[in-house]
Specification:
Shape: globular
Helix content: 55-70%
Distance between the termini: 39 Å
Number of strands: 0
Order of helices and strands: HHHH
Number of domains: 1
Radius of gyration: 13 Å
Largest sheet: none
């Protein structure tokens, strides 16, 4: 794997989040994409709610951006793929809830 591979995953993640930015607080999303967001608390009871899913996505995105140092990382690649899947799940839940 090359640096381009991890960079490619991060760009795809950023594009996906920006495409669905209406689901997120714009300041938190910008902070997460910069890797400087404070961790968002997720209570056990709200983990599968829209609010909990949003915070989980933002926390994971923040960690990926914070940990990327220009070196290829299979862990970051896998995390980006999972976050994109989580965003798609969030979109489906939001649509079913009439968001």
């Amino acid at each position: 794997m090359s640096v381009k591979s991890t960079t490619h995953h991060l760009v795809n993640l950023q594009y996906c989040l920006q495409e669905h930015s209406f689901l997120f607080n714009s300041k938190l999303l910008a902070s997460a994409l910069s890797g400087v967001m404070k961790s968002q608390t997720i209570r056990k009871a709200e983990f599968n709610s829209i609010h909990g899913m949003r915070n989980h996505i933002l926390n994971m995105t923040n960690e990926c951006m914070k940990r990327y140092r220009g070196v290829d990382s299979s862990l970051i690649n896998a995390a980006c793929i999972e976050i994109i899947r989580d965003v798609r799940s969030l979109v489906a839940v939001a649509k079913s809830d009439g968001f």
